[in-house]
Specification:
39% of the residues lie in helices and 16% in strands. It has 280 residues and is of the alpha/beta class. The model has no long low-confidence stretch (mean pLDDT 94).
Length: 280
């Protein structure tokens, strides 16, 4: 094809859904997503086929999914009464996790993707109270108004920005972090964090295919970037170490998990990525 398969950032949601489908089909699956294959479609499967050899199985995204699943449930045990999933993409947690029916789950994303998702999941019933908002999160005024609306109805909110921040400009990430920190109802903030070395590796191996959705944010100071905005890292889960624990890491990478863990506040030249849950 003369044009990249990833036509915009929304196509990356189809890519991630492929790996959820593959994992769900395993007899020893870490999670079950019965909707993933439907959501991925042919385009998602074509994008996954372009991945570099060491990540072609999708292990980083599979482990990211598992870790966020577990930390969502941990947050609910700690009193979370609302989950706000910013740039929710084709995520299906409100349909597949054992969530309390009283939980409020809010998804926000670009209008086109929200409409496509609603069409693909028409007739499916979420396990909790689910609502969706069509919004461009890069618009600061629109984002602030939306966040004000969310905090009016809940006081213990978990925010998820899974697979979002790496595609944003640093100033936009900083603005989002400050917006969240300024509203006390946002008690937890969960995300995936990449080191600059991981960013460069992805740019080198997938840069051409991600030309329409370039990765650009990987803070050299790791979690300290977010702590400077008023957050405190509570849970830091290395994707590689957890992949070894869950038996999903490629054999060629398993020995690296036994090396000293990079400093999450100064990863340096290390290829380090993690799921991090911040709190107040």
């Amino acid at each position: 094809m003369s044009e990249p398969l990833v036509s915009n950032v929304s196509d990356t949601a189809r890519w991630v859904a492929v790996y959820r489908a593959w994992e769900s089909a395993r007899p020893d699956a870490l999670f079950s997503d019965p909707f993933a294959d439907r959501l991925a479609g042919e385009r998602g499967r074509a994008i996954a086929a372009l991945a570099p050899r060491q990540t072609r199985s999708g292990w980083p995204l599979i482990i990211r999914t598992k870790l966020i699943d577990d930390l969502v449930l941990a947050s609910i045990q700690e009193g979370c009464d609302c989950v706000l999933n910013l740039a929710a993409g084709l995520d299906t947690r409100p349909y597949r996790l054992p969530l309390p029916p009283s939980l409020s789950w809010i998804e926000a994303d670009l209008p086109g993707l929200v409409e496509e998702k609603e069409a693909l999941l028409a007739g499916e019933k979420p396990v909790c109270r689910l609502s969706r908002e069509k919004i461009d999160l890069a618009d600061p005024a629109r984002r602030a108004a939306f966040l004000d609306q969310v905090v009016r109805d809940s006081s213990k909110i978990l925010v998820i920005t899974e697979g979002l921040l790496a595609y944003l400009d640093q100033d936009v990430v900083r603005s989002i972090g400050r917006d969240l920190a300024a509203r006390p109802a946002f008690r937890w903030w969960m995300m995936d964090v990449l080191s600059p070395a991981i960013l460069r590796m992805v740019q080198r191996t997938m840069g051409k295919n991600l030309a329409n959705a370039p990765l650009q944010f990987a803070p050299p100071d790791g979690v300290a970037f977010f702590e400077a905005l008023g957050w405190k890292a509570r849970d830091i889960r290395s994707l590689l170490r957890e992949a070894v624990r869950f038996r999903r890491a490629p054999f060629s990478l398993r020995l690296f998990a036994f090396l000293p863990e990079p400093n999450p506040r100064n990863p340096g030249k290390a290829r380090w990525s993690a799921v991090v849950r911040f709190g107040r």
